[in-house]
Amino acid sequence: MSEGYDPVAWERLRRQWGLTVLTAVSVAIVGYMFLSDWWTRRHGIQWTVTAGVVLTYELWLLWRYLDQNRCESAGLLLDSLGIATAATLARGLLTAAVAGFIVLPEPTGQTAWLPAVLYVVAVALDRVDGRLARQYGDTTMLGAKLDLEFDGLSLLVAGLLGIVYGTLPLWYLAVGLARPAFVIGRSLHRRRGGAVGSIPPSTVRRPLTGVQMFVCSVALVPIVPSTVSIALATVAMIPFVCVFVRDFHSVVQGA
User: Fold this and answer.
1) Taking each helix axis from N to C terminus, what angle separates 114-135 and 205-220, rounded to the nearest 10 degrees?
2) Nearest-CA neighbor of 91 among 136, 152, 36, 46?
3) How far apart are CA 183 and CA 187, in angstroms?
4) For a FRET experiment, which of 2, 128, 240, 245 has its CA 20 to 30 Å from that of 10?
5) Which pLDDT tens digit goes with each residue over 15-69?
């Protein structure tokens, strides 16, 4: 363990991680029962398996960064995940639920709104978790890590679903793959002995991410024509991808 390790706090965090696992399993079971009853058992299984893969990855991220549930790198380990991180984890559950629809036929009727509603609520939680952290003095390194990872994951999931539905162009996949490509590229550069610097500060990075979430939300709304969402996505993705390219170039230069 790192500096500031508290065995009591760590044990409480492990229990909260376990409760999060049980919550994720419950969500998967409820989703399976709903889709099996409304659609078919096969559709329920397909949704559960796909959502389960995303949930497993999110739970792994939570476990990986659990020791960073502290205000500062040298601060004491906090014994509670807090309300802000709980909101972030709820966003992760909703993202996994949306991911389950990627392998299913596009729903019809009133149920066609379900993926859009799930994703819009997830985006709303993304707007809320940061405010909760500041309001309750709950800002932690763990929360910041999960927020960043879940941002990239949600864009990948919603982008893939929009492409499957034909409401987003294939090239919009560049938005969802931007962060994975950045992380892999930086890692490969470091392994080859290249210098790696810090990501430069930016006042547009976060707003541009919010724009992409808005684009994905619009694309998943059934009543929005695909011509509109495709055009909007094409225009919106250009500055977003350019910022990632700029950041990668700055990082591999090794400041």
Assistant:
1) 150
2) 152
3) 6
4) 128
5) 999 999 999 999 999 999 999 998 999 999 999 999 999 999 999 999 999 999 9
